[in-house]
Structures are given as C-alpha cells and as structure tokens.
Amino acid sequence: MQAALNSWRLQPAGLACWAPRAGSGAARLCCRRGAPACSASSSRRSSSSSSSSSSSSSSSSSSSSSSSTDAASPKEQPQQQQQEAGSGVSIAFRGRALRAPRGAKLRSALLEAGLTPHNGRAQLINCRGLGTCGTCAVEIRGEVEPPAWTAAERLRLHFPPHGPPGNGKLRLACQVSCQGDLEVVKYSGFWGQGAERQGAVGAGDVGPPPLGRLEFILDRSKRDGGGTGEERM
Ligand code: FES
Fold first, then answer.
1. Which of 1, 23, 67, 141 shows its CA 20 to 30 Å from the CA of 16?
2. pTM of the model
3. pLDDT in tens, 131-154
4. Contact at 8 Å (CB) between 109 and 229?
5. Is the peptide bond before 165 cis (omega within 30 degrees of 0)?
6. Is the pLDDT score of 180 beyond 60?
7. Which of 108, 123, 133 for mutating ligand 1's site (highest number of atoms within 8 Å of CB)?
8. CA gyration radius, the chain
9. Dihedral angle, C-alpha 53, 56, 58, 61, nearest 10 °
10. Atom of ligand 1 nearest to the CA of 128
C-alpha cells in the first residue's frame, strides 16, 4: 500500500487527483486523474467540461454575436451608400459632374462646386440671383422646381438680347432648384444668349466664386441652412 502511495506521489501533479479530506481541510490522494471510478475527478471533470462548454458556448455565442455583427456590417454599408446617394442629385455641366443637395438652387450648386453659370466677365457683373440680369441663363434637362418660367424669368428672357426663338429652351439658374439629376448646357455670349454650346471646363476655370459667400446673399435656402452644394462626385 505504502509502495502504491509512493508511486502515486511520484506522479507529476497533472496526473494525480487530490481530494479534500473530510473534517480536516487537508488533501488526500484520490486516484490517478481520469480514472473512471473517481467521483471527485469525474464531478470536477463534468463541472470543468460544463464550464468549458458554457465558456465555449458563451465564446461561440459571443463569436456568433460577433459574427452576426460582422455579417450585419456589410449589409448596412450598401444601405448607407444608398441613403447617401439618395440624399442628393447629380449635375452634369460642361464636362464636369457634381453632386448637390436636392432642392439646392442651381446657380448656388454650380458656384459651390467651383463652377459658374456665367460667361466671362458676367462672373463679376451679375445680379447675384435677383433674376434681373439674365446672365445665368442655361438650358436644363431634368427635373427642376418650378417646372416652368417664373414671372422674373418670363420678363428677363423676353428682354434683349434674350428673345424668341432661342429663349424657349432657357431657364435662369438662379431661379430654379434641383429636384432630380440634371444635364445643364451653357451657351455662348455674355448673357448666354448665343447658339454655340460652351465646351468643357478647363482645370484653370474651376475656383471659388469672385465674391465668396456674398455670392449667395440672395439665396434664401442657403440663409435658412439649406443645401450647400459642396458634395462633389
Ligand atoms: S444671376 Fe442674374 S438673373 Fe440669375
């Protein structure tokens, strides 16, 4: 028996099973760990295995929750992109493409993007959106608001050098708001009254508007915290 005990004590700690001795708090050698007859070992095994299984299930639930989070992320991204894409309109203008908030004034959206609906010196000499100078006249394909001439447009686009028949296709960029994707054409002449389409904008023609923020002083939607037109494609 003593020889057997010595043999157990010589076992590495990992292979021996020690159980508490009743009433003394001391430990007694129980058996070789893993022996099927050992109740202490098997109860510890089962508690350890259940804790490990619960830990593994918790880890698996955590991993499944993490994987479900990971799985949700890629699904959320396209929705986010759709929302972002749906929040504005695209405007094609003289070889450039820009994005603007839906409802932005067309003149403001172009100026914010470093472009302009005015030709040459009309960039400096214009009414800043009052609807009286007629220099922001452009042809618009797409949905704008209002869909037909305003009273100001009717007056100005019938005042020389604007007039029939060329005026029929024109709108004043300062009087309309962007409601859908637009294609905007600018024609030649100080007032944009000519027959030739203006070509693509060069890199040197893109820049801030001459009067900075004062360019938008008559744009009520910008004063009220409306669209900025700053988003570019
Ligand atoms: S800026 Fe003068 S009419 Fe549009």
1. 23
2. 0.62
3. 999 999 999 999 999 999 999 999
4. yes
5. yes
6. yes
7. 133
8. 39
9. -120
10. 1
